[in-house]
Amino acid sequence: MLVIKNLTAGYGAFPAIHGISLKVTAGQIVALIGANGAGKSTLVRALSGTVTAMSGTIELGGKVIDGLTSGERVSAGIVQVPEGRQVFPGLTVAENLFLGAYVHRKRLSHNDLQQRIQETCSSFPVLFERMSTPAGNLSGGQQQMLAIARGLMSQPRLLVLDEPSLGLSPSLVTEIFRLIASLRKKGQSILLSEQNARLSLAVADWAYVIENGSIVLEGTGAELLACPDIAARYLGGGVKEHTSESRRAKLTSQLLPLLARDARQS
Amino acid sequence: MNEAIQIAIGGVLLGSIYAMLALGFSLVYRITGVINLSQGAFCVLAALTMYSLNVTFGMPLFFAALAAIAFTTAIGILIGAFTFVPGMTRLSNSNILMLTLGLLTMINGVMLLIWGSQPYSLPPFSGEAPVVLFGIRVPTQGLWIVGTTLVLILCLWLILFRTNLGKALRACAENPAAARLMGIDVKRMTLLSFGMSALIGAIGGVVVCPIISIEFVTGQEFTISGFIAVTIGGLQSFGGAILGGLALGVLTQMTAGYVSSMFSNGLALGLLLIMLLWRPNGLFAPALRKREDVREAARVQVGIVRLQGRQGWILAAIALLIAILVPHIVSYGMLSSLVITGILFLAVIGLDVLMGWAGQINLGQAGFMAIGGYSAAILVTRYDWTPIPSTLFGMALSLLCAIVLSLVVMRLRGLYLALATLAFGLMIDSMTVGLTEFTGGPSGIVGIPSFAIGSYVFATPTQMYYFVLALIVTIVLLLIGAMRSSFGRALQAVRTDQMAAAALGINVPVHKMAAFAISALLGSLSGSLYAFFFHYLSPEMVGSVRSFELVAMLIIGGEGTLVGSVLGVALLTLLPTIFQPLAAFKTFAEGVLLVFSFLYMPQGLFGTAVIRFNRWTHQAASRITPSVSAVNRGSV
User: Fold this and answer.
1) Which fold has domain B2-285?
2) ipTM for the complex?
3) How far apart are the first and last CA of chain B?
């Protein structure tokens, strides 16, 4: 559905990603993993049009979108949930959600919008209770939920999640990844850019590893999890990372049964 | 009792206007995080346009009002699209504030050219006879004003809180980057808010014109009053803006009615200072505050530009040589203008230390000129002091004021600091006009002798020229030394990031205070010399308009260069002398140049020239020796 061909983009005259090609198939979660500064965020920003592409093309459902403004891209069906949540703190939760559907404001009546909030928030029950609270008063985890829900309000064909686990406590991280898996089950296509490689690979159908602005490896989540090279570099394994590695392994071992349970229930 | 009620009604009417203006301020601030100082000018533009349409072109009053509002809004949108919106992505928040100051000056200048400086007034919309309500006489125009204010408030509230457009506008205020990702056109929203504030200003101007006579400078007064009102009420709250406006209106009318109008100005400004200290976010502060000290990366100021090493000294020597020879070439009138340039340059050097190096906005520099000027003038003419002690006395007084003021405004940054210094300048204004027995009031002090050291009198412009030149050279050399020491580096650190500077162990308050003190001392010195040179001193020579002019001179010449601002001072002082017929364009030119400098030449004339020169010498050098990697020792 999303096809990126040979994309080069960056800041000023300096490209941060070089000739990246990748594909997202409809209904799948595609993970983009890489270290800090590898170019994940630049790629994501190039998708939403906040960084302009220097060369290459971005196609969404067969339509070239790289000349479009950010707003037109949202209309075309690609929505980015930015890194660090970026909710509108002084606006209420409901107002934040309304703004998620801003590009459809002319098509949707007030009742349509209310209905859409109901639908979207069925995955985020915690938001229901806090509809009239200013978003700035929510906890970090709730703000992340709100940011994702806000992105879903325009019913995008592709949801781009930029570092959704950033700055959240381990239990909340598990919660967010469970949520991502459940969105996929509802048929939502997702491009997931994450530093937390293990959890990302656990939920992803397909994954790309990005290093120094280029894609160095791709495969199914399971393949990459098993790949020794990846294990060494992104899943820890060195002595230094021993503790964080064991923590991540524990988190994943918590997540997998939960995912399995979710699967049984649906 | 009846009288009190009548005065209170007057206060409510005036307060309604302030409230309208405050609403406009609050609107733009909430959407863009910027105070739009040009707002008052749109009031006056609309009022004067209505006057012309009605009186000159014979349009019925009502249609003239509508046409004037439409015209002003259109002008507002045009100006916004070409200045404010591009500025938002390029400039830091405090520079945007100055940009709007430039717009205010520019529009004032245009109005001065079209309508001249005389006051205008129009008949009330619904006849002169007042309406009697419960035995109280209310002018019909008052009902128009209050009604319009209410309708305006209601419309704004509906738009902002009940429409998609309003939500989008508020989203831009909260987080422009995220708003963009939601598909909101942030630029269009910025322009819209600017246009809306012009519209509000225009409506206010049109309805108030029949009760207040309007002239081109009224815009400044409107801006200041609206500004005070919105600070009292709280920038983030519409309710606060309205109450702040009404409170200010009633309070000033009451004091004007029972005490004196001079006292009412002082009271308003005192109130502003108290509010800034006690609750800088206003009476109705929002639960979630906007941080004032963070800047987006793209909007950080540029670095300080310098000539390199020896070249700097060579060029400085050439410039000095020219400066020494000049009196033998130019005419007598021209030489006087050059002396004025030099005197004002002293005040601007001070401003440069404070703004260019320490990064603190000061909109009240002329206040220190006034302290210096009046101290000298009063002591010399009334108490027979000699010029030097009286000048030093003025400087000591200025230093004292600067220390007190900087202790008071220590906690304030950016916008609020600008406000506080503006209030200081305006307070000095009202004192120079109001303390008639001391300062001679609006007509000023005459018969000030020439400056003298002992028995040597600097009577001719040539003598004064060399004296000022020597003074400038000494001060500039001293400051170059200071700015190249750790003190100068600490000031730059404070300018770039106060929090990081504090984390490095720099005592931020002390450095700010030192910069402020240097600025005040030089301002005061300049004011004293100004008085001695003119043999005359009146309030408008050292008033707030002068403060704005000094800022404009600094920006046009080049911030953070110490010597560069002389170009700005010379441009704005000498051009009107050289092209006498163009003198009327001065205010306009000042505004245009200020806006242009901010948008296209952020380093100013000097900075741009230095960058060109450095690039050129670098190219020339690399043509001779391909690898030039000499350490660039900074100078000048």
Assistant:
1) ABC transporter involved in vitamin B12 uptake, BtuC (1.10.3470)
2) 0.80
3) 66
